[in-house]
User: Fold this.
Amino acid sequence: MDKKTQHTEALKRVEQELKKCVKCGACRANCPAFSAFQREPAVARGKVALAQHILKGDIGLDDQTYLNMSKCLLCGSCVEKCPNEVPTDEIVIAAREALAEQRGLTTFHQAVGRVIKNRRMMTFGAFAASILGPLFFRKVPQTSGLRLRFPLPFIGNTRHIPGIARKPFLDRHPEVIPGEPGKPRIVFFVGCMTNFVYTEIGEAALALFRHLGCTVIIPKDQQCCGLPGMSGGDLQTVRELAERNLAALERHQADYVMTACATCGGALHKFYPAVVGRRNPELAARLKAIAEKTVDAAQLLQQLGLHPEETGAGEALRITYHDPCHLRTRAITRQPRELLTATPGVELAEMEGADRCCGLGGTFNVYHYGSSMAINEAKSRAIMASGASVVATGCPGCMMQLSDGLKQHGQKTRVMHTLELLARNLRR
Ligand code: SF4
Ligand code: SF4
Assistant:
């Protein structure tokens, strides 16, 4: 297949968006990929130019294009800075889809797609990992993290990895937990990291919304949001998961769809309508309706009038707060801070660059681990400089990355979800 006849349907869908770029370079300012690679193809302007040249047939969907398009964390910082609102994150997703259509999915993304589409396989795998963990991992002495005893494909053995929960959050509670009459009905979209790893986030969310008298519904048939597939261009898997999640969420008459994971919230609120809806107009109205109901847990707790002095009192802590990209780009920055500073015993010390990406970027962390940790370096140093003993955030993915970075520095700083701090009193 020559360059002119390559698979560019996915890119044609964003052709109008590409034309909005005036090449001003404002997107360079906070681009974590540019900070790591210092080359034009890493930044939004370069990616837009690459996409335009692919569409013209000037360059092919080849190894070099694949490498250039892989250098993006889909953080959305460029979209925030762009005067013309060029959706570079969506353009990169379209380019990755075009690359996957022409070249096939990578072995890693084939495996990711198979796993995230199969909740039973995930549950069984997580259970096996929780039992067999000691064979593969060793506890790191000075911290509570785990480190692989030997390198495994794609993840090596230098990372600090959180342990897997013995029992997933979704298996711990009934589907409907009734609240008080007249109080909001909330569907909880749990997300894989909370379900299998950080189950304490789910418990804290449940405790807080029950404290407010809400009915909490935890659909048993909810699935992975699909973002790990989206970042590899596997839009077929994302569509399938979006359809299944729509069915699971629509089954309940709820006032809100609540997420405690910034990435899942970003999927439901932004990427489902913008990316899946663009390709599947027959789903667009339903995706938009769910997006409009989707709220972050901290945002909703504040909206419903949570008084942190009733729920969060505990030992005195100096904390700092990291803004997850998928909350910051939805303007959810004030609410977690206001709730945390109203919590007795909590002193918030702002770190420098709290709004900068932590370097995870989904599968970016798998393909470019060295660069991912290089981006994280500034974040780790800022946390250390804040003098905080706890770093709070609103995304389990960021929690994993922040923990890894801090432990690489030999730090004992605890990484906690905002909800865990807000629910300290309720959970004791
Ligand atoms: S800020 Fe927007 S318009 Fe300017 S170069 Fe970047 S993508 Fe193009
Ligand atoms: S989404 Fe983030 S990493 Fe990707 S080009 Fe934009 S700012 Fe850079």
